[in-house]
Structure prediction request, 137 residues.
Amino acid sequence: AAIKERLERNTRSVTEEVKKQFEGYQSPDDAKKAADQIAELTQQLADQKQTAADLTAKVHAHEISSTKLKIAHETGIPYELAQRLSGETEEDIRKDAETLARFTAHGQPTPDFSPEQPAHNAQNAAYIALAQSLKGK
Prediction:
């Protein structure tokens, strides 16, 4: 009985020493869980980077479109042609707009109706007068 008690005491003390010695180590299950969490976080980070890149590209596209519209307005280019302007910087877009403006009636949109056309008969003259009065309103 005395030997049995002594063996149990030694076993407990050795067990406690081993537990203290390996207290900071993880079990294989804990290590696997940590690795899985790291992989999941890495994937989330990659997804967020991709989302940020997509949003940055969208913002850049909208800025370019806005710049094209602004420059088209400033140079008198019809809005229908604004998206045909090329360039990535405001200076490049402005150069292209100035070149295109030379081909569009001195930078002004061409009107669909010209009241200066001569009337060939009285009926056409009446229509022209009506159109001019409506245009004035």
